[in-house]
């Protein structure tokens, strides 16, 4: 058990500091007659891994280096996208540009697809980067016949059949529940914030007796308060009521993790931890909303999609709690929790989040300076 706890502390120290840096691409299709206009935003970090863009190996990818590889980028991408309506549609690349999504730079590939038959249905086969990164996701938005639909394309869901008209609500709900769940599991900053709050609550839970009963009540209060807080701002931001800058939001999220963890080492707030969860939950909701906006909200079933994504986030959050609480219960008779998990764990969380804060606030790359991931413009 002691070795397990030490390993857990080291895992916190080694947690990926590139929170919210998943491999993703944004594919938009406007279906008309007789063909399709497409826009495909692919992260430069992913293209660097796939075909190499940083020719001079100076750790920066410039616009000139991207333009030099324009033909290779188009060939690489379009070879991994098949569009068909009864017969295959022939794709042709257009001009290349750059754009930003959040804090990252993407190559924007515009293309057209000419189809020989009227477009009453469309088959999409997407395989970008699946051979290099099984976690890659393509975020698809299709505008067709006055409506829009969205989908998330992954290694197991890379083939999609669409028909003109509105997608069934159940499929919209299922897709967004899945992505909400996936997002919380890869959102290391959200996970560490939640764990930082739970560490102090779990200290009383580990003591048992009356403290244990109170801790269980506070555990429910903390999780519920965090849920209420991020649900409010998730809805407001996703619906366009408020739209704070992504750099500010990401920096504040990192700061919230630092403060929550430091409060365990140098206690300032020892009771009513749920108030911290509620307050900072409002900030984390803006982060969730940024991801949801990138996924795209369909015209049909907008509320269903928003509800589904939030449900997925809550399911992921519940999974974290369910895994974490038994660990504490298993060591409640050992005198290791305050010294090891509480202090070492909280210090590791604070140190990791401080690096995130410096990166996001000042546009630095302190934790991801790898040769294969050069600085993007």
Give the helices and strands, then pairings:
Blueprint: H1 2-13, E1 24-31, E2 35-43, H2 44-50, E3 60-61, H3 63-68, H4 70-78, E4 81-85, E5 87-88, E6 90-101, E7 104-114, E8 121-126, E9 137-144, E10 147-153, E11 159-163, H5 169-186, H6 188-207, H7 209-238, H8 246-265, H9 273-295, H10 302-330, H11 337-362, E12 375-376
Parallel strand pairs: 1-9, 3-12
Antiparallel strand pairs: 1-2, 2-7, 4-5, 4-8, 6-7, 8-11, 9-10
Main beta-sheet annotation: 6 strands, mixed
Number of domains: 2
The helix/strand order is HEEHEHHEEEEEEEEHHHHHHHE
What is the CA-atom radius of gyration, in angstroms?
23 Å
Low-confidence stretches: 1-20, 368-377
Shape field: globular
Overall pLDDT level = 81
Describe the structure.
- The relative contact order is 0.16.
- With 377 residues, the protein is an alpha+beta fold.
- The longest helix has 30 residues.
- Helices cover 53% and strands 20% of the residues.
- A hairpin with a 2-residue loop joins strand 9 and strand 10.
- The protein is globular.
- It contains eleven helices and twelve strands.
- The strands form three sheets. A six-stranded mixed sheet has the order 6-7-2-1-9-10. Strands 5-4-8-11 form a four-stranded antiparallel sheet, with no helix packed on it.
């Amino acid at each position: 058990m002691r070795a397990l706890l030490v390993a857990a502390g080291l895992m916190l120290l080694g947690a990926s500091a590139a929170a919210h840096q998943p491999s993703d691409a944004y594919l938009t299709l406007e279906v008309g007659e007789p063909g399709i206009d497409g826009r495909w935003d692919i992260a430069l970090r992913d293209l660097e891994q796939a075909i190499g863009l940083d020719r001079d190996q100076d750790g920066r990818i410039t616009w000139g280096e991207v333009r030099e590889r324009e033909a290779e980028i188009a060939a690489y991408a379009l070879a991994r996208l098949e569009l068909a309506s009864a017969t295959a549609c022939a794709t042709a690349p257009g001009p290349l540009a750059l754009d930003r999504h959040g804090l990252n730079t993407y190559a924007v590939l515009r293309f057209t697809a000419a189809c020989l038959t009227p477009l009453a249905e469309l088959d999409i086969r997407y395989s970008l980067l699946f051979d290099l990164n099984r976690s890659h996701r393509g975020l698809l938005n299709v505008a067709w016949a006055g409506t829009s639909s969205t989908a998330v394309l992954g290694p197991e869901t890379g083939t999609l059949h669409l028909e003109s008209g509105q997608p069934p609500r159940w499929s919209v709900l299922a897709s967004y529940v899945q992505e909400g769940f996936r997002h919380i599991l890869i959102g290391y900053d959200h996970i560490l914030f939640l764990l930082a709050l739970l560490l102090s609550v779990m200290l009383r839970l580990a003591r048992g007796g009356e403290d244990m009963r109170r801790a269980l009540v506070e555990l429910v209060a903390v999780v519920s308060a965090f849920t209420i807080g991020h649900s409010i701002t998730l809805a407001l931001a996703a619906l366009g009521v408020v739209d704070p800058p992504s750099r500010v939001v990401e920096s504040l999220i990192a700061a919230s993790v630092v403060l929550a963890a430091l409060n365990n080492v140098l206690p300032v707030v020892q009771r009513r931890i749920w108030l911290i969860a509620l307050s900072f939950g409002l900030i984390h909701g803006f982060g969730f909303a940024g991801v949801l906006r990138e996924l795209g909200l369909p015209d049909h079933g907008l509320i269903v999609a928003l509800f589904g994504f939030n449900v997925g986030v809550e399911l992921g959050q519940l999974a974290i709690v369910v895994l974490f609480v038994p660990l504490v219960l298993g060591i409640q008779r050992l005198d290791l929790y305050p010294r090891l998990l509480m202090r070492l764990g909280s210090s590791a969380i604070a140190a990791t989040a401080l690096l995130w804060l410096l990166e996001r606030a000042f546009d630095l790359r302190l934790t991801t300076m790898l040769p294969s991931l050069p600085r993007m413009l």
